[in-house]
Amino acid sequence: MLIVIAEIHTREGIEHKSKVIDAFRKITPTVLAESGCHGYELLLDAQVEADFQHKNPNVITMLEYWESMQYLQTHLETAHMQAYQAEVQDDVLEVKIRILEKGLML
Questions:
Q1: Where would I find the ABM domain in this sequence (predicted)?
Q2: Own/partner pairs for 23-30, CB < 8 Å, 24+ apart?
């Protein structure tokens, strides 16, 4: 099982972040129905007071679980992901992807 963390950096301004969130709202049910997808979740900074928390108002984090690299690659090539990228291209500055796997099996 692969765990993907996509850190999406949007342009400054709530309108850009909102547009990206709306685009994810549209595609999430389709992504969750894809073969090999075991989870797809949009995460935002919690609005809590903790001096050890690093917040960035222009970052959206996607947490994804994929059965294998093959399924993840197929996901990235789907028409809905291509449409998503075109829809938000003017709102997203950068995307940082981490592909992880569990380090301890307890």
A1: 2-100
A2: 23/84, 23/87, 23/88, 24/60, 24/62, 24/84, 26/84, 27/80, 27/81, 27/83, 27/84, 30/80
Q: Residue-wise pLDDT tens for the chain (106 aa)?
A: 999 999 999 999 999 999 999 999 999 999 999 999 999 999 999 989 898 988 899 999 999 999 999 999 999 999 999 999 999 999 999 999 999 999 998 8
Q: What kind of fold does domain 2-47+54-100 have according to CATH?
A: Alpha-Beta Plaits (3.30.70)
